[in-house]
Specification:
The complex is a heterodimer of chains A (177) and B (468).
Chain A lengths: L4 E8 L2 H13 L5 E4 L7 H4 L7 H27 L12 H27 L23 E6 L7 H9 L5 E6 L1
Antiparallel strand pairs in A: 1-3, 1-4, 2-3
Helix pairs in contact in A: 3-4
Chain B lengths: L32 H13 L5 H27 L13 H13 L1 H12 L9 H22 L25 H34 L3 H11 L6 H34 L11 H27 L8 H31 L3 H12 L3 H13 L7 H4 L2 H28 L14 H24 L5 H15 L1
Helix pairs in contact in B: 1-16, 2-15, 3-5, 3-9, 3-14, 4-5, 4-8, 4-9, 5-6, 5-15, 6-7, 6-8, 8-9, 9-10, 9-14, 10-11, 11-12, 12-14
The chains are: A alpha+beta (177), B mainly alpha (468).
Chain lengths: 177, 468
């Protein structure tokens, strides 16, 4: 059967093996690759060359928008659009506006956190080539995978396969696009 | 395939103990990634529900139907079917609201605060308690809405450019409440769902029927466990925990402002916010124990929910219980020390007036009985622990009754004094809301993993590393 190659994937049974493999692959010059694990493995993303994420920046922006927007809404409605004089108290009675300002900050930051995380991860994405590998079913239980993708400039079907074999995985498979 | 836990029951007697005799393990020895995933996942995927599930679900569902009947009658007749009137206009609806929202606090406390404090024991109970939070907040939200009198115009509480040209009064604690509770529900839901995504992917991969594969697959949104995804997922999860931590403290503080901003003896007090928050965590942990003890037994989860979890939860209950007891003492002391005649007569009336017996019941349930938790034998005896937790749950409900009713029924002018008695519809709504809560929990236990499988796998990885 002829198919377009997405990459080559190696299967490991231990978390530290896949971290080690990722480091070796990075040292070999591979960049377009990803690891798949059933739980978050420390240092793995860093070993693949992903040092930091933009999630905190997005969450911070969400929080600022929520807080400023919340206070503005209260100030505008209570002091500008429909001021009500309650015993001569100031229209911009800021201490009374703090609870809702705070709640809206948390609300907007949280929505930014989930939306930002999903968008950066390009999810939802129901299908992905790695799902074509039958063994990948266990990636969400007890197997750890390292996939070097065909779009990597250093990728060569035979050499990459041989390189992955040298890392002593339990199996190496080709991934169809 | 490794042996699953159902075929190898773990007894609590075999739970390892620390040198001081406290239960020490978070997970039974010899567990593997596959075995913990199978233990938790199989409840949802392969098994028929146990007969006790059907019985429990049936009873809860019957109570839920009672709630619907009570609400239908309420919408038809109006809030007059409840025992509320002037001077006690708040009654059961607000008592139940504060009680439920308090119960909801343990979930976020366990998920967020204990995550930030690196308390590993939260791992096998956080998912369940987050679900408990969501359902408790859903029950809580029901009561103020029904109490509005015309619930169908509830959206007048929200700021939107309406044709009347009016805005909600943002200086009012009741409007703060709308924002606090709806934010709390939304953020809890987001936090819960973000944690669920990897587990939904596990269920998708392990499901045998097409319908389940598609359902869990859609919910998992194509999660594939990519290391880059995990990195962002973990960061988002950590930040959500950081956001939820002040949120959980703010929600019950705002609820307490509903009382303490009012110029009423017994309500107008600066101790209310911290005292309410401690009480919320107290009752939340009591509910956690009341639910987890039977669930653990029913689903044979002894290998992942160990006696150490029970012991720790009991310790949190003991500490927050002492804070609540301190609150009671300070309330009485400040009433006397203020020299304010209205405060003093309120406190005398609370202890010795027509509702005095309720106050002393509160002391029994909330202060006296929980002292049993000083004993390690009580903390690790599941029957005793269950009974103490039940006492606290009832006690916290009674506390809110005392706060709401004794302050309202006798205010400044004796001519406006009165009594409050609940009607059968009050009781039907309260027990009906318990039915709603339990129905949702039973459905959750049937269709979603009660314990975070990916986090328990992390624990397995750690315990293997420790051994190596």
């Amino acid at each position: 059967m002829k198919y377009k190659l997405y990459g080559v994937v190696a299967e490991f049974t231990e978390a530290r093996e896949v971290v080690e493999a990722a480091k070796r692959a990075y040292a070999q010059g591979y960049r377009r690759m990803d690891a798949y694990t059933p739980f978050p493995v420390e240092d793995l993303a860093e070993a693949l060359g992903n040092k930091w994420t933009r999630v905190p920046l997005i969450v911070f922006t969400g929080g600022v928008v929520g807080a400023v927007g919340g206070y503005f809404m209260e100030w505008y409605s209570m002091a500008v659009d429909y001021p009500i004089n309650v015993g001569g108290r100031p229209f911009n009675s800021w201490p009374a506006y703090i609870p809702i300002t705070f709640e809206l900050m948390v609300l907007c930051a949280s929505i930014a956190a989930i939306v930002g995380m999903l968008v950066l991860n390009r999810l939802p994405r129901p299908h992905h080539p790695v799902f074509n590998v039958p063994e990948f079913e266990r990636a969400s239980t007890d197997r750890f995978f390292l996939c070097i993708e065909a779009r990597d400039p250093k990728f060569d079907p035979a050499a990459t396969r041989q390189f992955l074999q040298s890392l002593h995985p339990s199996s190496v498979k080709e991934v169809a696009e | 395939m490794t042996e699953s836990i159902q075929s190898a029951p773990v007894s609590d007697k075999s739970c390892p103990v620390s040198p001081l005799g406290y239960p020490s393990s978070l997970i039974a020895p010899g567990e593997t990634y596959e075995s913990v995933t199978e233990t938790i996942g199989s409840i949802v995927l392969t098994k028929k529900p146990p007969p006790s599930w059907l019985v429990g679900f049936g009873l809860s569902f019957a109570l839920l139907m009672m709630l619907f009947a009570a609400i239908a009658w309420l919408l038809y007749k109006g809030v007059g079917i409840w025992g509320i009137n002037i001077p006690v206009a708040w009654g059961f609806a607000i008592v139940n609201f504060v009680w439920w929202i308090g119960i909801g606090h343990a979930g976020t406390f366990i998920s967020a605060i204990l995550l930030l404090l690196h308390q590993k024991w939260r791992t096998s109970i956080n998912r369940f308690t987050e679900a408990m939070t969501l359902f408790a907040v859903a029950c809580a939200g029901l009561f103020p809405l029904l109490h509005l009198g015309r619930p169908w115009v509830f959206f007048w509480l929200l700021p939107y450019p309406d044709t009347m040209g009016l805005w909600p009064q943002f200086r009012s604690p009741l409007v703060w409440d709308v924002f606090a509770v709806s934010t709390y529900f939304t953020v809890s839901l987001i936090f819960w769902y973000v944690g669920l995504i990897p587990d939904l992917a596990t269920l998708r991969d392990r499901a045998k029927t097409r319908a389940k594969q598609i359902t869990y697959g859609v919910l998992a949104m194509g999660w594939r466990g990519s290391a880059r995804h995990w990195q962002r997922h973990q960061m988002a999860y950590l930040l959500l925990a950081g956001l939820a931590t002040p949120l959980v403290l703010s929600v019950h503080s705002v609820v307490s402002f509903d009382f303490s901003v009012a110029m009423l003896p017994g309500w107008h007090s600066t101790i209310f916010p911290p005292y309410f928050v401690a009480g919320a965590i107290y009752s939340g942990f009591a509910m956690v124990l009341n639910l987890l003890i039977p669930v653990r037994k029913l689903y044979h989860l002894e290998s992942v929910i160990t006696l150490r979890h029970m012991n720790n939860a009991a310790n949190v209950m003991l500490v927050t219980g002492m804070m609540v007891a301190y609150g009671y003492i300070m309330e009485a002391f400040m009433a006397w020390y203020s020299g304010d005649i209205f405060e003093q007569s309120m406190m005398a009336n609370r202890m010795l007036g027509p509702y005095g017996w309720v106050f002393w019941l509160l002391m029994l349930f909330n202060v006296l009985v929980p002292q049993a938790l000083w004993s390690r034998r009580v903390r690790t005896n599941l029957v005793a622990l269950f009974l103490v937790a039940l006492s606290v749950n009832v006690g916290m409900w009674v506390e809110r009754f005392v706060i709401v009713v004794t302050s309202l029924h006798r205010d400044f002018v004796p001519s406006s004094w009165g009594m409050y008695y609940p009607t059968v519809w009050d009781l039907a709504t309260l027990f009906g809301s318990v039915g709603l809560f339990l129905t949702l929990l039973f459905l959750f236990a049937r269709f979603l993993p009660m314990i975070s499988m990916s986090e328990v796998r992390e624990l397995v990885a750690e315990s293997q590393e420790n051994k190596a």
